Amino acid sequence: MRIENSFIPVQGIGESTERKLWANGITHWDEFDGSVVGPTRADRIETFISEAWTHLDDGDVTFFDRCLPAGERWRLYENFREDTCFFDIETTGLDHHRDRVTTVSFHRDGETTTLVQGEDLTAERIARQFEDAKLMVTFNGKRFDVPFLETSFGVDLDVPHVDLMYPCRQLGYSGGLKQIEGDVGVERDEPDITGKDAVRLWHEYERGNENALETLVSYNRDDAVNLQSLMETVSDELHRDVFETACQQS
């Protein structure tokens, strides 16, 4: 689903009105017909569309991030997939004021980069990974990954954010990342370890076990790479559930 299919970014237009438009064959901004919604709403939509085309042509994802309801930010992905940064962190615990970030993996444009504590994990290197990124995608990153990085390194991750935990819940998927991957059929390479194992592996590495770090990095990289597969799956499912279902009611 593309942003151009969306009408809920318009102030005063909710899901029911948007679905009414779709059901009447108005599935794209270019197809808008004000007779379906009345003159006041029609004026709002026409004004928005005129402004929105300019922002879309400029690649201004922030404009749409502000306009879309929080639960609908997954709609940004199709337009900005090439400039999306998927990332995941590993830590020594759950408290971002006390515990440390050990590794961070970023997956973007087919390439995966992992930064390691004590080697190259710095605020400058983290910020560099988000340069020119239009969108970032995490799983539970709103509550965990983002505040951890911001607190630990003093960075400001001011990039439009899709936290996949919430659209997954919208589709009825619950549990952690690995469980949901299994539920939707996203395959995971070895190693088959847990978050607790990740903490243990880091401590083993600190005691001199280089193989433990190799395993931890492999696990962290899989998390970041699989976020893209999960984003593709989730956006496809929501496209069918939200958009195609309404269109079929016409």
Describe the fold and architecture.
The chain has 250 residues and is α/β, with parallel strands linked by helices. Helices cover 48% and strands 12% of the residues. The protein is built from ten helices and five strands; from the N terminus they run ααααβββαβαβαααα. It has a five-stranded mixed beta sheet, sandwiched between helices. A hairpin with a 2-residue loop joins strand 2 and strand 3. Helix 9 runs antiparallel to helix 10.
SSE diagram, text form:
Layout: H1 15-23, H2 39-57, H3 61-67, H4 77-80, E1 84-91, E2 101-108, E3 111-116, H5 123-129, E4 135-138, H6 145-153, E5 161-163, H7 165-170, H8 177-184, H9 195-206, H10 210-247
Parallel strand pairs: 1-4, 4-5
Antiparallel strand pairs: 1-2, 2-3
Helix pairs in contact: 1-10, 8-10, 9-10
InterPro entries: RNaseH-like_sf (IPR012337), RNaseH_sf (IPR036397), YprB_RNase_H-like_dom (IPR038720)
GO molecular function: exonuclease activity; nucleic acid binding
Protein name: Putative exonuclease, contains RNaseH-like domain
